[in-house]
Write a structure and sequence with these properties.
eight-stranded mixed beta sheet; 16 helices; about 15% strand; 8 strands; alpha/beta
């Protein structure tokens, strides 16, 4: 990483220390170094570029990974497919560093990736699943917004022309809550007006993933859809998504994450989000927004502290805690009732196709051999207690921002999803 450091608007405010976190140039270099170092035919890089009306343009690095071989992955359509999107908001540096750590593990090979999994996954089954899985990783979606942050606007979450990429999708686009603040959540002139959202949408349309995880910071939470209403999806597929994040919470968040839908857990409704569109319109079976860190006691103007750890030790611990969460998730995805994949490409002589019996067995494992009703009751109690504290803090911040931000001010704060 670069040894330079961004300046802050006040000596009392925190700023990035690029001695241990990556600036944008270092991110691009680390991505290319990981791909170059990887075994042949397991990782590839392409850079998407798109311009929109008004001359605004940006680029997006996309890394495709297949431990079973990229050629084999392209030749089949029955393997597992996962999209991991990081860096949607410029001020959230930590998720991008987690992405780099994951890419470096993939470059180190299968053993290094397997070692990242937590939660007691069967190693043989995990290796078979990984060899039949293709990952698409976007390490830093919002390059132009990140540039503004590194130029000193540490509260900026939007893209390079002032549009929130996570309000620019078409489900409930443009709906404004009472505490709406255009400095935080401006959704653009129309759905998909921005190159960041259109490139990600096209990527998902092309790849047809079984799971999409959108990584953020601002609080500790594992969210399912929906963001625009205060309820969760229903059905066996939605129940499986909740089962999975119970395990992720235990293994990677020390049972400290808020679990459930974003609309219930954040404390406000968010309209035009990627998660709701990808789940409701694109029909991807498993869709999450993972919030991996937040300092809810940070003053609302101290944005870097609110969204990123401020010491090297805390930063490194969070990267270690979260880098393997996608691998833990992949170990569980074959048990989802709406995911039908063939794991025979994973290097075993006997094809393994998930059927009703194997799904039932997997769901019993996810429930820890306890009744599902009891598991959901415990999760509901945990969700209610942890979420109540988080919701109070986030609502307080949004109120403070609304009361203290003048029309010409650059102070922005409080939105997390």
């Amino acid at each position: 990483s670069s040894s330079s450091s961004s300046s802050s608007t006040s000596s009392s405010l925190h700023a990035p220390d690029f001695a241990y976190t990556h600036d944008a140039r270092a991110v691009r270099a680390a991505v290319r170094a990981a791909v170059h170092r990887a075994s042949a035919d397991t990782m590839s890089l392409r850079t998407l570029e798109r311009a929109s009306d008004g001359g605004y343009s940006t680029r997006m690095d996309v890394v495709t990974i297949a431990l079973g071989g990229l050629d084999a992955s392209r030749a089949r359509d029955d393997g597992l497919r996962v999209v991991l999107n990081y860096g949607e908001h410029g001020r959230e540096l930590l998720p991008v560093d987690i992405a780099i750590a994951l890419l470096e593990a993939f470059a180190d090979g299968e053993d290094a990736v397997v070692a990242l999994a937590r939660g007691g996954a069967n190693e043989e089954a995990l290796r078979r699943t990984l060899r039949a899985t293709t990952f698409v990783v976007v390490p830093m979606e919002n390059e132009r917004g990140r540039a503004l942050v590194e130029d000193g606007d540490l509260c900026e979450r939007k893209n390079g022309r002032g549009v929130d990429p996570n309000r620019n999708w078409a489900v409930n686009w443009g709906v404004k809550e009472k505490d709406y603040d255009a400095k935080e959540e401006y959704p653009g002139t129309a759905p998909f007006s921005e190159p960041e959202s259109t490139m990600l949408k096209s990527l998902i349309e092309e790849f047809k993933p079984h799971a999409v995880v959108n990584w953020h910071s601002g609080m500790s939470a594992l969210f399912t859809p929906y963001d625009h209403v205060a309820r969760m999806p229903t059905g066996t597929g939605a129940e499986a998504m909740l089962d999975f994040i119970k395990k992720i919470d235990r293994a990677h968040c020390a049972n400290a994450c808020v679990l459930g839908s974003g609309g219930q857990g954040v404390g406000y409704l968010a309209h035009g989000t990627a998660a709701d569109y990808i789940y409701d319109v694109m029909k991807v079976p498993v869709v999450y927004t993972w919030e991996v860190y937040g300092d809810l006691e940070a003053p609302y103007e101290d944005c870097y502290r609110a969204f990123n750890p401020t010491t090297k030790e805390a930063h490194e611990k969070l990267v270690r805690d979260w880098v393997g969460a996608p691998i833990t998730l992949v170990s569980m995805l074959p048990g989802h009732p709406d995911i039908n994949i063939n794991l025979s490409h994973g290097g075993e002589n006997t094809p393994v196709v998930m059927n009703d019996a194997s799904i039932a067995s997997r769901r019993a494992y996810l429930a820890d051999a306890s009744p599902l009703d009891g598991g959901y009751a415990r999760m509901a109690l945990t969700f209610a207690s942890v979420a109540a504290c988080a919701v109070f803090s986030l609502r307080r911040r949004r109120m403070q921002r609304a009361q203290s931000t003048s029309p010409g001010s650059s102070t922005k704060r409080a939105s997390v999803v």
